[in-house]
Automatic annotation (TrEMBL):
Domain of life, source organism: Bacteria
Protein's recorded name: MFS transporter
InterPro entries listed in its UniProt record: MFS, MFS_dom, MFS_trans_sf, MFS_Transporters
Annotated ranges, domain Major facilitator superfamily (MFS) profile: 16-420
Main location (coarse class): membrane
UniProt cross-references to CDD domains, sorted A to Z: MFS_MdtH_MDR_like
GO molecular function list: transmembrane transporter activity
């Protein structure tokens, strides 16, 4: 019954995972247009800095809708089609964006681009839960997060060389990367037989695992079990939105990400106010990326010895310590120490949260569950800059860091109080998978 024994395994994880992981690494190394969009709008389209921020935020708002619907669509039509369609659609949108010279039109197209580019996000998370056995999912989601962080750290370096030649080249390069990786994924899925798998909804109707021959799930359903009718997208939404363990996790992670994303919205403003410049801020981000790339994979061994809740709570407390240090920070060195602390807190937070949501998700609603969970991150990316700017302008940077610290402590308390409900739901889902 064990799939992983029937297919090639590398470092304890199936080939079905590694093909997607390699694609994620390449995709995020080539994902840099949005990071340079504000500079492009100001320097090339001569847009006011304030308006440029508003235009770029449209991408974040689009991501809310992409995550909300991408997961449910992957439950209905399959993970792989949503992943490939989202990447090819994003490539087409990047080519269109390169021709736009009107700021208002750019804002509208960035909203649409945000929707399309976010469609694959929950499908990717659900795919990992589909193909990786439960005991190995912490490792899989941590490796996925490492690939994202490595790509995020190296992508801007590539883009910096491209924009020196032409901003248009930056758009075309990312579009070409998305297209090439999509082709690679289509070939990979075909070779592994994934393109012949039925959608998750059909899988439930047929009473099969949905994996290709020799790659059935870690504990596939008994063919003698009663067959269930396909679950509709509306039914999956109702199921997820009334699932207290999931929704409590989403609300808590929303509070965490709104506060944590002040590292890219409130922090540069606060550092500027005390006389530090972009060089010092970029060095802080380098510390963040460097620690994540160096320690995230070795940290897997530590995470495997701890419960999900313990990793998350400790991550919140360490992050709170980092943000607390920023309350009285007056030098780059203080901010650097603070960044090291909140980065250590981040090491396990995002991958273990994704692992937890995978454990909470019924097999035929994994995409929907991951989509609603990822909604918290997309909403935070859109809201965090507004919150940070408003709080700093009205109450000062010290109050912002105090509020963020308090938020992390509240989230840690909330995670501890809701531990029992989450663990019971995860145990119930595991029993159903093993039945």
């Amino acid at each position: 019954m064990d799939s992983v024994k029937k297919q090639r395994v590398i470092f304890g994880l199936p080939m079905l995972f590694w093909g997607l992981w390699l694609a994620i690494l390449f995709l995020w190394m080539g994902r840099f247009v949005i990071s340079f969009m504000s500079i492009y709008l100001v320097s090339t389209m001569h847009v006011d800095a304030g308006l440029a921020g508003t235009i770029v935020s449209m991408y974040g708002f689009g991501g809310i809708f992409g995550c909300l619907f991408g997961g449910a669509l992957s439950d209905r039509f399959g993970r792989e089609p949503m992943i490939v369609i989202g990447q090819l659609g994003s490539a087409a949108m990047l080519v269109i964006l390169s021709f736009i010279d009107d700021p208002i039109v750019m804002g509208g197209m960035l909203l649409l681009y945000g929707v399309i580019s976010s469609l694959p996000t929950p499908a990717v998370s659900a795919y990992i839960a589909d193909v990786v056995p439960v005991p190995m999912q912490k490792r899989a989601y941590t490796l996925q997060t490492w690939a994202l962080n490595f790509g995020f750290a190296t992508g801007p370096i590539i883009a910096n060389h491209l924009v020196k030649i032409s901003y248009t080249l930056m758009f075309y390069t990312e579009a070409a990367m998305l297209t090439a990786v999509s082709v690679m994924l289509v070939v990979f899925f075909h070779r592994m037989g994934v393109d012949r798998m039925p959608s998750p909804a059909t899988v439930r109707a047929a009473g099969t695992t949905g994996l290709p021959a020799g790659a059935d799930s870690a504990a596939g359903p008994d063919p003698a079990r009663p067959r269930k009718r396909p679950v509709s997208m509306a039914a999956n939404y109702r199921r997820a939105l009334t699932d207290w363990p999931l929704m409590s996790m989403v609300l808590l992670m929303f509070g965490y990400t709104v506060a944590y994303f002040q590292m890219t919205s409130g922090l540069p403003i606060a550092m500027t106010q005390i006389g530090l410049g972009t060089d010092e801020y970029s060095h802080v981000l380098t510390i963040n990326g460097g620690i994540l790339c160096l320690l995230q994979i070795p940290a897997i061994a530590v995470f495997n010895r701890m419960s999900n809740t313990r990793v998350l709570v400790l991550g919140m407390l360490v992050t709170a310590a980092g943000y607390m240090l920023q309350i009285g920070a007056t030098s780059w060195h203080a901010f650097a120490i603070a960044a090291a602390l909140w980065t250590l807190g981040e090491l396990g937070t995002f991958p273990i949260a994704a692992t937890t949501v995978a454990g909470l998700s019924p097999a035929d609603a994994r995409g929907t569950y991951q989509g609603i969970y990822n909604l918290s991150g997309s909403m935070s990316q859109a809201i965090a800059p507004l919150v940070g700017g408003w709080v700093i302008s009205g109450f000062g940077a010290h109050f912002l860091w105090e509020a963020c610290t308090a938020m992390f402590l509240l989230v840690a308390l909330g995670l501890r109080l809701t531990k029992g409900a989450r663990e019971r739901a995860m145990a119930r889902n595991l029993q159903e998978r093993l039945a």
